[in-house]
Amino acid sequence: MTAFRIELRRSSALLLAAATVVVGALLLWLLADEWTARWSGLAYLMRALLFALVPVALAAGAWQGGRDRRAGVTELFGTVARPYPQRLLPVALAMAAGVLVAYAALLAGGSVQVAPYASYAGGQWPVVVAVGAVALVAAAWLGMAVGRWVPSVLTPPTLLVFSFLGQMLSRLDNGVLLPVLATPSDLATVAPEFLAAQGVWFGGLAAAALLLVASATVWARALAAAVALAAAGVSSAVAPATAFVVSTDGATLVCADGEPRVCAPRIHAAVLPALTEPAREALRTLAPIPNAPTRVVATDLGWAPVAPQRTTDVLVVDLRFRLNATGRFEAAPAGLRTILLKGAGTQSCPDPAWGFERDVAADQAATGWVTGRPAGPATDEYGRLGERTLSELKALPRPEQLARLAAYRTAKVRCDRDPLTALTTGAPR
Amino acid sequence: MSGPGWARWELLYLRAREVPAAAALLPVTMLAVGVLANASAGPSSTAPAVVGVCAALLGVAFVGTTLGSADAVLEHTAAIRWWPRRTVHLVAGTIAVVLLLLAVDLAGPSLATTAELVRNTLGLIGVTALCASFTGSRLSWCPAAAWTLLAVVAGPRSSGAGQVLSWMLQPADARTAATTAALLAVSGAASYILAGPAGLRRA
């Protein structure tokens, strides 16, 4: 214990902790838009920090690992009547303690931005962060092993740059062997088997690196290589093909009291109080249209597995890029109404065969009809086309107008027909 | 001066700063960066600009480790005009890094425009030289590395403060980024050339 305390001060553990906290805290602050108000958001950001923190840990480890040989004191220390592994263990533990305390401090700092606002505490986010912490320890120890092997002052910057570039250039999207774990959606959660495989890999790597650091014989080094290879093999074999699955808890819809129903995923339940009233007002506005929506669902449209079925019954609100640091809508109620009524409560079709321009013009006309405002900026071609379509539509008798809008909504939901044609000619006969 | 005495002084200066190792390994590592970037080049790969910045950081870090000797305090006591020597050292190191970057850029995948490569090298060497004059040379590359990691992971920003923060990722014609790099280069070079490397302790 005394040796551990001495090494905490003597080794590069404090340097490592300071660098980790500074770089990590600045990144948490710079990327605040992407994680606030959700525990899982913070957890995956803690893993994204590893882009920078793993290179830092490797470099600091390499600096520590090469110190004795650079200073020319290995012979002196060799005279100590203790076996080599016993002398190195306190150093390795001090480095691990430094990086772990720093990572925990970052988590604590980040939770200040989450705890007051998170509407959903469940999920396995602590495990996601814990695996990241193991990866950091493995990086620090691996750096020590490399530094002991090549004790040059050039080793730390070389390791830093190449590990960083390697991660940035890696084409393995969410590979099981990579420290960084990027979530495709707020409603996704990492598969438990994937997380377990990562735990096996980084745990094995840390053990192998520690063996390398403390090794005094060729056999110990061979054993370390075998452990690392076995860990890599086992985790690659057991890892599922897709890292992320739908979060059954977080993606479950919770609805505001009363009718018509206005729902949001549990992880985003904080949007409901502000959403409910504008959403019901939008439903009332759309009600005259024959196939008007009867309920509102807020979700993340960016990830196919959670995309809601396309139906005219549901008005879907995309939550992406629309929430602020407290997990609520950035837009004021008036802005929310505009979002809800866009395209008479429809979503765009992916990759329309008739081109986005006709989609945009039709959307502007339909939006203009519903909101009673001009169709849009009539400065470009689509704006003028939308404006013309809207004035033609308004010249028709009202039942025909509503029928045209219903045809347009059907076309938008099915994505089998040009919505502008639907708006100008009505339902196919 | 001429003759073996002159050459010996030069050699001792370079050896005291471990320049031979850095000079020998820098082209090798730069080549490795080029190979890495080439192997992963593709439509979905990271922007080449990031590779360019990382390569510049690597070169600057190597130069940074050579900015001081094992005992800077002892050197300060020598009755030698240090500032011309430090100037030559810093300028030669910067030119070497820029030339290697251009070589990688020409031979392998295009990393960035020449102006961007020069700006990034100058700015990063400025940060490194500034740090060397305050905390010594051996870890003088750390602030430049931290800044680069931050900028690349957080991504380029377009706001005023964001441009200053991510200056090394801005396009060549970004005025704020160029000014930031120039300020860093001038202050770092001035501080290092006038004050020399700090000599706190051996690591």
UniProtKB/TrEMBL annotation, chain A:
Keywords of the record: Membrane, Transmembrane, Transmembrane helix
Membrane-spanning ranges: 12-32, 44-63, 88-107, 127-147, 159-182, 194-215, 222-246
Source taxon at top rank: Bacteria
Keyword Transmembrane recorded: yes
Name of the protein in question: Uncharacterized protein
Species whose genome carries this gene: Phytohabitans flavus
Species classification: Bacteria, Bacillati, Actinomycetota, Actinomycetes, Micromonosporales
TrEMBL record, chain B:
Keyword annotations of the record: Membrane, Transmembrane, Transmembrane helix
Protein name: Uncharacterized protein
Tagged with keyword Membrane: yes
Domain of life: Bacteria
Native source species: Phytohabitans flavus
Taxon lineage: Bacteria, Bacillati, Actinomycetota, Actinomycetes, Micromonosporales
Keyword Transmembrane included in the entry's annotation: yes
TM helices/strands, residue ranges: 21-41, 47-67, 88-111, 117-135, 181-200
